[in-house]
Amino acid sequence: MTKKTPEDLLDALEEQRLDDAMDRVLAKTHAERLASLREKNVDFEAAKAELDGWLEESKKPAPVIPLAPRRSGSLRVVALYAAAAAAALALLGGGAAVAVHYLSSPEEKPRSLPAAPPPAARELRRDAFARCNEHQWGACLYGLDQAKELDPEGDADPRVQEVRRQAEAGMQKR
Amino acid sequence: MRSKLPTYLQALSKEERETLLAEVLAYTAEITRTPAEARLLAMETFEAVATTRPYDPDGKMTLPQYMMWVAKSLRSNERQAAATRKKHEREATRDAVALSGRSAPSPEEQLLEAAAARAREARTARIMDKLRAKLAGWPLELRLLALKLDDGAPQKAREQAALLGVHVEDVYRAAERIRRYLEGILAEEEEAAQ
Asked: What is the distance between the alpha carbons of residues A133 and A71, in angstroms, rounded to a whole number?
């Protein structure tokens, strides 16, 4: 028998709990699962709506982002001639500045990608949720506030609001 | 143009989707503490299975089993991250002391470290004694605890149930009681240490 620390034992028990829960849920019928969700105050209908929304969004084809601006045919020919002329000037020694100016012209810059939702906000919220679980209410609220700064819309999510309420209540109890 | 959603999720009918969600959500509700957390973890599981943790339909697991396994893995990562953070905080305090000038520990520091190791062992013994004392009226829990502390013993609930001659549900309940009591004792210890 090895000397397990209490923390090792707790980890082993937690691991077993997660496995046991899996067996238990798989052994239930659909109706029993719904009943257990009701018992635990988990809003299945809201989760369903959330999943449907996400699936609809995910089913949409990925947007095609052009790497360079579109130009009309005639503009493209003009641009080609202009580039050739600029390059020739550059080769002649005196036109380098012209070529650089042309190539760095704001009109010719590729379009920037649309702003993606901040990836850090989700991480911050996940960490804040974990802190809340550990009853570290201050750290939890701080994390939620940081996430809100990056993603104000995400803060309105009912799950975030619920955790925020718990943390605020926890702070008041201190 | 191709959809972002993998076929095994896209092909689900409305009923199949609902059933799958109920399975995943029932599982995440079992392993988290609040309804909000349960829903967040369930959604993260769907996202992970659609992107970074794709399902192999030719593999050994069914889709619900696989999704629960992913949820478990996400949950475990979270717990480990929290444990690692606490450990790093403790180590940072220790490092700050160690970095106070010398590279090799002095004989006094070695003595202190040995004393700390003894204190850790004593703490383990004390907590285990407290746990056994709390479980005194629960013979199955005590026998299960002995199995949990034995690395050579089976660690699966079904195998433990067979070995102990009880129903697997009894093992679930016993393990849960041990865990609850141990968490309580550890919380008391932490409070006493502060």
From this structure: 55
Lowest mean pLDDT among A144-158, B71-85, B141-155: B71-85
Residues 6 or more apart whose CB falls under 8 angstroms from that of A2 comprise B149, B151
Interchain CB distance below 8 Å, B34 and A166: yes
- Look at residue B71 and tell me whether its pLDDT is greater than 90: yes
* ipTM exceeding 0.90, yes/no: no
Q: How far apart are the first and last CA of chain B?
A: 60
Q: Residue A86 is which amino acid?
A: A
Minimal Cβ distance to B26: which of A7, A9, A37: A37
pTM value is 0.59
Give the DSSP per-residue string, A73-109: HHHHHHHHHHHHHHHHHHHTTS-HHHHHHHHT-GGGS
Mean pLDDT of all residues in B140-161: 90
- C-beta neighbour count of A9 within 10 angstroms: 21
pLDDT at B185: 93
The position carrying tokens 């550890």 is B186
